[in-house]
Amino acid sequence: MLDDAVLTERLRLLAQYLDELRGFRKAARSFQVYVDNVMLRRAVERGLQVAVEICLDIGRRLIALEGFRYAKDNQDVFRVLADEGVVSGDLLETLLEMARFRNLIVHDYAEIDNARVYGILKKHLDDFDAYAQAIADYLSRA
């Protein structure tokens, strides 16, 4: 088993952010409630951004520890993990979408699509769980 304190801490932090996001999901009872509550929108946007950053940090750390090929950008982090069998091909497309979403939140912050963010909040938090599980499974095998 690959035992690394940084990976363990990042997985714990990801779980914490997901718990917070699930609380925000309950607070956003409807799209209108979400749109009308600026603080909730900002909290969700930031929470999702950090959750994706944590996933990328985990991926980069694992790539470094295992000596996998260097990832040239955020999307490539997830491609490397798929190439090395850490994450499945089915999960890869979801992870690539996470990386694209992160870029939109960070770089196109003035044009955030509230419907898209709300959709991720309501329907895609389990994607983060699937990634964390894939990492945990890999660590137990390594």
Q: For the record, give the distance between the C-alpha atoms at the N and C termini, rounded to a whole number.
A: 5 Å
As a percent range, the share of strand residues is: under 5%
Give the helix tally: 7
CATH class: Mainly Alpha
The biggest beta sheet is recorded as:
none
Helix content: over 70%
Could you tell me the radius of gyration in angstroms?
15 Å
Descriptive notes:
- The chain has 142 residues and is mainly alpha-helical.
- It has one domain (5-141): bsu32300-like (Four Helix Bundle (Hemerythrin (Met), subunit A)), CATH 1.20.120.580.
- It contains 7 helices and no strands.
Please supply descriptive tags for the structure shown above:
7 helices; mainly alpha
Helix and strand topology:
Blueprint: H1 5-27, H2 31-36, H3 38-66, H4 74-83, H5 89-107, H6 114-123, H7 125-141
Short description:
With 142 residues, the chain is an all-alpha fold. It has helices at 5-27, 31-36, 38-66, 74-83, 89-107, 114-123, 125-141. The chain is built from 7 helices and no strands.
